[in-house]
Amino acid sequence: MRKKEIMIFMAKACFAGAAIGLGAVASLYANSILAGPAGRLVGACFFTVGMFVIITYEMKLFTGMVASVTALGVKNLWQLPVCFLCNAVGIGAVALLARFSFLGDAVAAQAASLMSGKLASGWWYLEDLCSAALCGVLITFSVRSVRAAPEKGLSPTLGVVLPIAVFAFCGFDHSVANMLYFYYLGEVSWQVLAYILLTVVGNFLGGAAFPFVLWLAERKKKAAMPEAKAENVRDGRGADKLSDNPTKS
C-alpha cells in the first residue's frame, strides 16, 4: 500500500469503529429503557446498524477483515492489528460524544454494569474465549452472506443483519464493541487489557475457521481439475478437441 492508500484504510477503519459504537450505544440505551428480554431483543436489533453501515460503505472492521483473512495473504496481515487500533479510536470518539450527550448517564450505567459482570468471572476463563469465538463465527457469516445470499435467491440484507442480531442478543463478546463498554467503565488494568486480548484472539479463531475450510475446499477443487482433464484425454473424451489443433510440420 502507498501512503495515501494507508491513510484511507485507517480512516475507513476509524469510521467502522464509530459505526459499531453507534449501534452499541443504541443497544445500551434500549436496555436502559426496556427491562428484561424485550430490551435485549430491541437492543440486539439496533446493534445491527453498525455492520449494515460498514458493509454498505465498505468500511474496515477488524472482525470483518478476519472473515476474508485467507485472501489477505501473509504480507498483508499487518492490516489486522492496525485496523483494530483504528476501530478502537473510532469507537472511543463515539463513546466520548455519547457520554456528554443526553444519553450519557443511562448508557454509561448499562455499559459499566455489563463489563463489571464480565470481569467478575475472570478473564482467564475458557467461557470468555468461546464466547468471542462464537461471535467471530457469526460475524463471518454476516460478511460473507453479501455475496453468497444472492446466488441462492436470498436477501443479502437479512444475511447481514440476522447473524449480528443473534450474537448481540446472546451477548457474545465482540472485541471492538467491548472497547466502548470499557471506555465507560473507566478502568484500566492488566485484567482489562488481558480480557480485550482474549476477545481479539477468540474473534480471530472463530472468524477465520469458516474461511479456512472454504480455502481448503477451493485448493482441493483446483488440484482435482488437472487430474480430471488428464483422465478425459486418456479415455478418449478429449480426442475431438485434440484433432482440432493439428501440429505444424
Biggest β-sheet strands, sense, barrel: none
Q: Calculate Rg over CA atoms.
A: 23 Å
Q: Which geometry do the CA atoms define?
A: globular
Total number of beta strands: 0
Q: Based on the structure given, which CATH architecture is correct?
A: Up-down Bundle
User: Which structural class should the secondary elements be placed in?
Assistant: mainly alpha
The helix/strand order is HHHHHHHHHHHH
Number of helices: 12
Quote the distance from N terminus to C terminus.
Answer: 50 Å
Notes on the protein architecture:
This protein is mainly α and 249 residues long. The chain has one domain (3-243): Glycerol uptake facilitator protein (Up-down Bundle), CATH 1.20.1080. It has twelve helices and no strands. The longest helix has 45 residues, at 190-234. The relative contact order is 0.14.
Q: Top keywords for this entry?
A:
249 residues; mainly alpha; Glycerol uptake facilitator protein; 12 helices; disordered C terminus
Topology of helices and strands:
Elements: H1 3-33, H2 36-47, H3 49-56, H4 62-66, H5 69-72, H6 79-99, H7 104-120, H8 126-151, H9 156-170, H10 175-185, H11 190-234, H12 239-243
Helix pairs in contact: 1-2, 1-3, 1-6, 1-7, 2-9, 3-9, 6-10, 7-10, 8-9, 8-11, 10-11
Task: Give the structure's gist in a few sentences.
The protein is mainly alpha-helical and 249 residues long. The chain contains twelve helices and no strands. It has one domain: Glycerol uptake facilitator protein (Up-down Bundle).
